């Protein structure tokens, strides 16, 4: 019987515990006493003797069998509690414990958990590296261990992604994936702080991976040099536990949220526009998905090319990293069902508690969702959000003017070089004009043009007199060639038939006519 029980124990233990430990537990269980159980056994024996007659060999055999079965049952119960306590302290693959199982269970119940190795399962290097985090009572070894076992995908290696990725690498996340399809540009470096000048022209993910490995070589870093879209997102996202939306792009925000719902992944969603930022944890602990929060994409603010102060996405990115750490380590209260708004100008943080909650009619996370993995891959997120999936502005094709009312950059360059009198009006905002402009151009922002028409009429008549009608005396230019066309329309509607616009604006000018022109867009 003893041999059979030992064999049975070995089978049940499998590879998770050594044979010597099994024998140790077994010896302990056989030697221990349990007053309550013993009293119950004696009562049962008395009952059976009374019922079947004392001294009967059959009765004694039954009683022995019952006692044996109970002993096996109690032993199994004890071992279940022991292994459950090992799970609670994260003891998978841990060294054999020196504590008897019953004592281990009792200590667990007291909250005095035993650990199976020095450093609580963390290596000496990890203890040294993360000591300042380990000293935090609310985080401690358990938080660090969970964080070190988690995998996080950061989508976007820009300004948001820089703060997120660096802090996650430094704090010791287990695996860190970074997805981005763009290259590092000089204009990135003011805010995208994980990229160095030496990486200009190279993929951002290469630069980002190098920066993360440099700060913590023990973190597994995976770079995905691709633009994450619906058709490839499922394969990438499913490899990770937690997803960070650091794209700052509306179409990508909806796409990533849908992808995370389909794959049951928490999404840490952050965004900035101008000097403001926003943060929420979606699809986690019952929190709404991004579609629940913003059912109408038109009501969302998309990123723009109106400029950004690098530290603003830096602030939001740091907060995204914090939410990842909280979700991964199961410490604290993640920003679920709430939203954080940040106003950099007034230095105000505001937590909005009354936001839309998860909707049962949501087409993605609702009770009867329409979106499947197949339809997700075919979904047109660009058209849905009315924005491009790229952070760069889409090319415009506005062309309301006849060709004879337009002039190419090269044609205007020849006019400029000829010295023929004319007036070039730049209709960009003042702060754009102050960054860079063509020599001798005059700045009248488009929104001020109508009110300044009377004064413009005087100036124009003077130029027209000088030019003697040999060419059009008035030209408009803007950044891309759209606002300048609107300006010509305004002039024509107000009795100025002689205005032309410079096709493609300053972007074309810098590309085709003056390569030395300062490019700020
Ligand atoms: Zn939803």
Automatic annotation (TrEMBL):
Keyword vocabulary terms for this entry:
ATP-binding, Coiled coil, Cytoplasm, Membrane, Metal-binding, Multifunctional enzyme, Nucleotide-binding, Transferase, Transmembrane, Transmembrane helix, tRNA processing, Zinc
Subcellular location, in the record's words? Cytoplasm, Cytosol
User: Does the entry feature the keyword Metal-binding, yes or no?
Assistant: yes
Q: What's this protein's name?
A: Rhodanese domain-containing protein
Q: Where is the Rhodanese domain?
A: 418-518
- Annotated InterPro entries: Rhodanese-like_dom, Rhodanese-like_dom_sf, ThiF/MoeB/HesA, ThiF_NAD_FAD-bd, Ubiquitin-activating_enz
Spell out the Pfam families in the cross-references: Rhodanese, ThiF
SUPFAM superfamilies reported for this sequence: Activating enzymes of the ubiquitin-like proteins (SSF69572)
**Main site of residence?**
cytoplasm
A molecular function annotated in GO for this UniProt entry is: thiosulfate-cyanide sulfurtransferase activity
């Amino acid at each position: 019987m003893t041999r059979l029980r030992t064999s049975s124990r070995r089978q049940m233990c499998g590879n998770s515990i050594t044979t010597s430990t099994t024998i140790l537990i077994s010896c302990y269980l056989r030697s221990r006493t349990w007053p309550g159980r013993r009293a119950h056994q004696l009562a049962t024996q008395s009952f059976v003797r009374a019922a079947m007659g004392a001294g009967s060999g059959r009765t004694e055999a039954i009683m022995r069998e019952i006692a044996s079965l109970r002993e096996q049952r109690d032993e199994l119960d004890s071992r279940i509690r022991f292994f459950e306590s090992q799970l609670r302290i994260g003891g998978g693959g841990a060294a054999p414990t020196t504590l008897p199982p019953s004592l281990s269970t009792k200590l667990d119940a007291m909250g005095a958990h035993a650990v199976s190795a020095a450093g609580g399962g963390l290596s000496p290097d990890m203890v040294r590296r993360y000591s300042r985090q380990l000293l935090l009572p609310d985080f401690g070894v358990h938080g660090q261990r969970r964080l070190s076992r988690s995998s996080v995908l950061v989508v976007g290696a820009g300004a948001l992604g820089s703060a997120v990725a660096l802090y996650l690498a430094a704090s010791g996340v287990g695996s860190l994936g970074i997805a981005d399809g763009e290259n590092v540009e000089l204009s990135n470096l003011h805010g995208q702080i994980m990229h160095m000048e030496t990486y200009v022209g190279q993929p951002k993910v290469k630069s980002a991976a190098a920066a993360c490995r440099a700060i913590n070589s023990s973190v597994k870093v995976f770079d995905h040099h691709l633009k994450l879209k619906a058709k490839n997102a499922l394969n990438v996202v499913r490899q990770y536990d937690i997803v960070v939306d650091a794209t700052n792009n509306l179409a990508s925000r909806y796409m990533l949220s849908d992808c995370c719902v389909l794959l049951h992944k928490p999404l840490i969603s952050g965004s900035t526009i101008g000097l403001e930022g926003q943060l929420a944890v979606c699809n986690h602990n019952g929190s709404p998905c991004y579609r629940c929060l913003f059912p109408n994409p038109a009501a969302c603010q998309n990123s723009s090319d109106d400029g950004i102060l690098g530290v603003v996405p830096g602030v939001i990115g740091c907060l995204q990293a914090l939410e990842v750490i909280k979700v991964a380590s199961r410490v604290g209260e993640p920003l679920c069902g709430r939203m954080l708004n940040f106003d950099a100008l007034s230095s105000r943080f505001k937590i909005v508690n009354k936001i839309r909650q998860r909707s049962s009619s949501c087409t993605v996370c609702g009770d009867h969702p329409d979106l499947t993995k197949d339809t997700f891959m075919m979904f047109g997120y660009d058209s849905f959000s009315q924005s491009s999936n790229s952070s760069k502005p889409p090319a415009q094709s506005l062309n309301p003017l006849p060709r004879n009312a337009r002039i190419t950059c090269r044609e205007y360059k020849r006019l400029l070089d000829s010295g023929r009198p004319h007036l070039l009006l730049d209709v960009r905002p003042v702060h754009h004009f102050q960054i860079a402009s063509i020599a001798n151009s005059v700045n009248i922002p488009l929104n001020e043009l109508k009110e300044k028409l009377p004064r413009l009429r005087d100036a124009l008549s003077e130029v027209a007199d000088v030019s003697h009608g040999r060419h059009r005396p008035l030209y408009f230019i803007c950044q891309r060639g759209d606002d300048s066309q609107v300006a010509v329309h305004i002039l024509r509607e107000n009795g100025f038939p002689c205005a032309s616009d410079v096709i493609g604006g300053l972007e074309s000018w810098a590309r085709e006519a003056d390569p030395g022109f300062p490019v700020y867009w």
